[in-house]
């Protein structure tokens, strides 16, 4: 019989044999019907073992019934018909012979006896060769090392068995980033983990690190003084959106910021403007006078976000103000350009001046208006200037119904499926706004939405780290952060640039307008 694994079972049949018992002492002859099989059941914890089974005899050879069977003796040895071990097993029809040597041929037989002491001759003989033990698994060494500026875990020499797997984790220290990871001298990229699968050889893995680039300095605010300051912008001849932050140095200053057709040298050159006035409120030029829908007070040292929607052909503009941590308030609706600029056809300069105190400017963004995007069951994509660092995207979005399923996001390619979109905001079908976080949608705050209501979304997207924050301001409401440090969609975890804004609606539809990218 061919050797088998110790974790398998082997079966051997003993053929029937006539007159397998002889008369002994005073007893009558016994007839043992047949040994049915010998079964091997190897054990990894000890030497091989063999399990033998047989059927019980029911008659003597003279045909009379056997009613006084007493038991059996199992015989075994390493030569045919020569048995060196004998096991009295009682009235059983199965017995396991244990502690057999590996890779050895054994011979087995069984005899029966009755209560009167009559015994049969040994049954027919079966042979079995115990399997050789499996060779020990080969061992291999995985050697891990890390340069200055980080760690690899586990480190040093790791001994593993053939066919196993081993994962190594690479982590940079504070102020460092992973520069490269090599396996057997070949780069596998700046990965944070690496797994050797089904090991069949020795390997070396090494990690190197480099000083992380210093974070980009915060933009230096422009300080407005009594000298007219002019900043050229792309000429605007249609409708456009301007967003910027202003911080007054003191209360009751007199400072303006706005748009002009020329490098302004006086107030009359500025067509559309916002003023921090000497009475302590923010107002807007409307034709020949300053006024405001709401007398919005300001405080020294506090930042105010200004949003101006300017319609050059019709010489009209709207103005919205959001105090830091506060709610957006509209303070001007369809106000007229300054009287002296009522016929201007283009605005190409951002202008500032203050006669009292100073005014700091940050985060100016001017975006030409484009047709609103409308989602549907077909993917809608619009190209944007490629983004590779950190940027802020701001837009207004309006769901057309309650409990729709519609997304707005940014992708590296013109999206044709959800998996193409890296950073995503969704109107979900449960009636709230959520955000993609790796492999799932989630939100810090379950912010409900309503059909036909406008929501201003602000997304701060860090492409190198594949993370983003999301803030939502319902029309007339307060800005709420619904995502902080959320991960790009899993399929886009390695994206290096975002080049498109992408829309899709599985149910219902929504509009996106007034997109601004900083």
Question: Would you kindly provide a written description of the structure presented here, covering whatever features stand out?
Answer:
With 518 residues, the protein is mostly beta strands. The protein has 4 domains: 120 residues, Immunoglobulins (Immunoglobulin-like, Sandwich), CATH 2.60.40; 73 residues; 147 residues, Sandwich (Jelly Rolls); 145 residues, Jelly Rolls (Sandwich). The protein has no helices and 42 strands. Strand 36 and strand 37 form a beta hairpin. The relative contact order is 0.10. The N terminus is likely disordered.
- Counting copies of identical and different chains, the oligomeric state is single chain
Q: How is the main sheet built?
A: 6 strands, antiparallel
Strand content: over 45%
Rg over alpha carbons: 44 Å
CATH class of the largest domain: Mainly Beta
Our measurement of the CA-to-CA distance between the termini, rounded to an integer number of angstroms, reads 80 Å
Organism: Citrifermentans bemidjiense (strain ATCC BAA-1014 / DSM 16622 / JCM 12645 / Bem)
Signal peptide: 1-47
Domain Fibronectin type-III: 36-133
Protein name: Fibronectin type-III domain-containing protein
In a few lines, what is going on in this structure?
By secondary structure, the protein is mostly beta strands. The chain has four domains: 10-129, Immunoglobulins (Immunoglobulin-like); 139-211; 222-368, Jelly Rolls; 373-517, Jelly Rolls (Sandwich), CATH 2.60.120.
